Amino acid sequence: MKINKMIAVQCLIACSMLFSLAVKGQGQQGVSLDKIIARVDNHYILNSELEDMYNQYKAEGRTAPERCQLLESLIINKMLLAKAEIDSVTVEDKQVDGELDAKMGYMIQRFGSEKNIVEAYGKSIDNLKSELRQQVKEQKIVEKMQQTISGNVKITPSEVRKFFSSIPKDSLPYIPSEVEIGHIVKKGTVTREQKDKLRQQLLDLKQRAEKGEDFATLAQIYSEDLGSAKNGGDLNFAKRGAMVPEFEGAALALKPGEMSDVIESQFGFHLIKLIETRGAEYHARHILLRPDYNKGTDMTQAIRSLDSLRQLIKIDTLKFAKAALDNSEDKETAESGGLIQDRSNGLARLTLDASMDPALYFAIDTMKVGDLSMPVSYRMEDGSSAMRIIWYKSKSEPHTANLRDDYEKLAQIVLSNKRNNALEEWFKKAQGDVFISIEPEYKNCKVLGLATGDEM
């Protein structure tokens, strides 16, 4: 069993979550009844899971591994989950919710709005979240188990040198051009006209509720929080600290049955009705109206701020990394001094080819190394409009791999190999701690060295 290949497939499990929802959301007809094809303790693998992973490769235009290899990766995933239960390894709900929100944010960006998602899938946002939540939780537990098993593995420079020396000179990889690019992002501000319009709409709804119309019905009709709207804006019980401060402060200032004034938060504008409090928890409904970031965003202040930062950086009064850390509203890159990382390896070096974000590719095409761009338009991952300045920090020429220029990449390979070896040793021992059963139709797979119908 080559665990390094298996672990490389694990990311497809996360990707196939959304792919599976997309296929099911399209209402395909004539799909055969799903069935269990393997079991690991109390965890089951369905034929649809295997097919979703296989089809994900096809959808991305890549050559899919054999189904036996994909099945083995799924079984490894379930083994990690089963052992996590035995070893009492868990993850906090806050981590799961954060990851779930990120995935939903990706879907909103892809479809344009929550409304479009609901129409595409024929399901409410709550139902979609419910379907994804357990999968996200399992994914986080698997990641934590992998970290528990191999997270303490370290490497030394001598190990990196030894690995490099072991590669035949005629087999050294060819490294294409790579670039380091940083950016500082400032979001646009919603225009006063649009804010006033949204506030007035909510005040009108408040007045209608005060005159006797049902708040829940108004939420169903008007609220743009589609997840709660179908339940009349009901947010269920929330613990203190769970909601953004503006919302929570307004809700807790109310008595049961009272409605708030219009409250602005990072999510939009809220009208809140408190239902009840219970110890450290409170139960509220709300109606949410969101600004239209495409039509109602003023970029004047963002451009002004970026122009000012650009001038300070150009005369070397302010370093780019410090400016990004203190000012950029892209928090993911701000913490790395504004440098944009390759998400596949976490390094701040991007391959200069067709895989690069087209907006970046064409932006630096007209720039020289060291240049700092004028403010240009940028679309945030949550779909909101922004501006950014781009710093073309460095560019490497295509070359054959060497220790001086490619130490980080080589170190990553050595570390990955060492972690995979630790995982492989763990799997050899763990197989005896869990029950594994595979259906006879996969008799030729020899998954984990098991013959068809073998059990452990």
Helix content class: 40-55%
* Percentage of residues in strands: 15-25%
Q: How many structural domains are formed by the residues?
A: 3
Major sheet strand order: 11-4-13-12
Total number of helical segments? 16
Compute the number of strand runs: 15
Radius of gyration: 26 Å
CATH architecture of the largest domain: Orthogonal Bundle
Task: Give a concise summary.
The protein is of the alpha+beta class and 456 residues long. The protein is built from 16 helices and 15 strands.
Task: Please provide a written account of the structure.
About 50% of the residues lie in helices and about 15% in strands. The chain is α+β, with helices and mostly antiparallel strands and about 450 residues long. The chain has 3 domains: about 5-155 and about 410-450, Porin chaperone SurA, peptide-binding domain (Triger factor/SurA peptide-binding fold, Orthogonal Bundle); about 175-190 and about 300-395, Chitinase A, domain 3; about 190-290, Roll (Chitinase A, domain 3), CATH 3.10.50.40. The protein has a 4-stranded antiparallel sheet. Helix 1 (about 5-25) packs across helix 2, helix 2 (about 45-60) crosses helix 3 and helix 3 (about 65-85) crosses helix 6. This is Peptidylprolyl isomerase. InterPro entries: PPIase_dom_sf, PPIase_PpiC, PrsA_foldase, Trigger_fact/SurA_dom_sf. One of its GO terms (molecular function) is peptidyl-prolyl cis-trans isomerase activity.
